[in-house]
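User: I'm putting together notes for a lab meeting next week and I want to include a structural view of one of the chains we've been expressing. I don't have a solved structure, so I'd like a prediction I can at least talk through. The sequence is below, exactly as it appears in our construct file.
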Amino acid sequence: MLAAGAMAVELKLPGKIRLAVIGQDGHIGDVLGPLPQLPDVEVVGYCEGKEAALAALGKKIKNERAKGFLDQRKMLDELKPDVVAVVNDDGARARGVLDCLERGIHCIAEKPLAITRADLEKVKKAARESKGNLSMLVPLRFAPHFKAVRAVVASGEIGEVLLMGGQKSYKRGATTDWKNNRASYGSTMLWIGPHLVDLFYFAGRIKMTEAFCWQTNVRDAALGDRENVVGAVFRLANGGVAELRMDYLRPDSAPTHEDDRLRVAGTTGVVEYTAATGVTVVSNGSKPRRLESLPEAGSVFMDFLDSVYNGKGGGLTAEEVFHVSDAIQAADDSSRSGRTVKI
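Assistant: Thanks for the context. Below is the predicted structure for the 343-residue chain, given as C-alpha cells.
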C-alpha cells in the first residue's frame, strides 16, 4: 500500500540514487512508501542511536543489502549517499540536517528543521552554502483535497484571501518518551504547526508577518512537557489573518486518528475542507457546491527528487520551507514570551 499522498505512477530519474535514512519518527512512510514507484532509488544505509531501534528500522527498510549504523556521521562518510531522509526526534533534527548539508548531500527532513531559533539560522545558512538541496516533510499540500482548495483560490473565484483558519485534532495516543520532553520534542507548535502553516502559505500564497501563540498542557500529566492545546494567530502581509487550533483531545472512539480542517475566506467567497463535508465552495459567482472531482494525490518525497534530478517538481520550494520554519519559530517564541513576534 502506498503511503498517504504517494503517486501510483513511476518516477524515472537520470541514474541510480543511493538513499540513506536517519531515524524513523514522524512521516517516514512518506519516504519509504513511494519506493516501489522509484525504481532508480535504493536504500543503502540507515541509522539509529540504539541497537533495538536500529533493528526496528532495518525491518522497515526491507533491504538486506542496506547497512545499519549507530553513528550518522560514520554512515554519511562511509556510504556517501546521494540523498538522506532525516526523520529522527525533533531535538536531534538540526544536527542530522547540518551533517548532510555540510557534506553537500541532498536532504529531506521531518519537520521542524530545528527546535531553537539559533539552530534554525544555522540550518538556513548551511542550506544557502551547500551543494545539497533541502526540503521538509509537509505532505498535506500534496493531498487531493488541499490541492483542490489551492486550485479554487488560484482561480480567483473567492477573490483576495483575507482570512484563513485551520485545525489539527489528534487522538492522545500512547505516551511517547521523546515527545514528552521539551529537549527532544520542542513543542506542539513546532511539531504539528508546520502542517497548518504550510497549508496557509500553500493555499493563500500570502506571507505571514507576525505571530501570537498560546500553548500549554492542561490536566494531562502523562504527556510531560507536551502541550495538548494550542491556539495561534498570524498577521498576513496584506492585512488579513490566519488562525489555527491544535490539540491532543480527539476521543479514542473517533473513526480516525486526526481531524484536519482548512477554511479560506476571500473578498468574493469561501472555500473549505472538512472530512465530513469534503471540499465546498460558496462564492458570489456561482451556486454553493461540493467538489466531486479532485486532483490526483502527489508525494512530497517524489516531488523533491523530481525537482533535484529532473528539474521538474517544485511543488515545495526552499523559500516556502524557510518561511514556514520562520513562522512556526516565531509562534513558539511568542508562546514563551507572551508577546507578538515578528516573522
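A couple of points you could mention at the meeting. Confidence is low (pLDDT under 50) at residues 1-5. Residues 93 and 114 are 6 Å apart (CA to CA).

User: Perfect, that's what I needed.
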